[in-house]
Amino acid sequence: MVPLSFAGHDFLALPEAALFWPARGALLVADLHFEKASWYARFGQFLPPHDSAATLDLIEELVARTGAKAVWSLGDSFHDADGATRLDKRTRERLTALTTRLDWLWITGNHDADVTHMPGGRRLTEAEVDGVCLRHEAVADDSRPEISGHFHPKLRVSLRGRHVSRRCFVGTQNKLILPALGSLTGGLDAHHGEIRRALGPGAIAMVPLSDRLLRFPIG
After folding, report:
1. Cα Rg for the chain, rounded, in angstroms?
2. pTM above the 0.85 mark?
3. What is the pLDDT of residue 19?
């Protein structure tokens, strides 16, 4: 975990694509896309079927490592409206145990807007904590400090003749977009026009390593 300051608050960025807020004891994650594989399977496209369990494994590991008392999931937690009902029994039990034990907040995203029964926790369209707005998709004309997801940003660079792609955070002084944490989520290039339009000028891509935060100007 490496320090990341944003909007006057101290966070810790994790290489596994999550953000920890020590003052709140909260682990912030985005775009889990639980049950993405089972959604594709219905249309004859078969992906590794244990994506939800693998994503939950990682969340449990990060909660244990950080000592988090809360998990705030910033939208698209499930891949589709029926995703929650397709969880296998063991994964559902594990997820329900976490949402019962922790202050678990589901922020609504575009993929999971129609999910009727989340497995525990609280559900909001957005929230504001200590002056920071938590939502799924960045709102370009909102000047408030904002943490969001939605775009699955990845930084793609060429190093010594090799192409390297890493999940990354992207942000400006008042906007921060988290990478996708889900095990089967793809990524949008951090330099993509949609990300640049959402953030405005002066955006930076940030790649957390074990001991430092690498920063790359966007644009």
Report:
1. 17
2. yes
3. 98
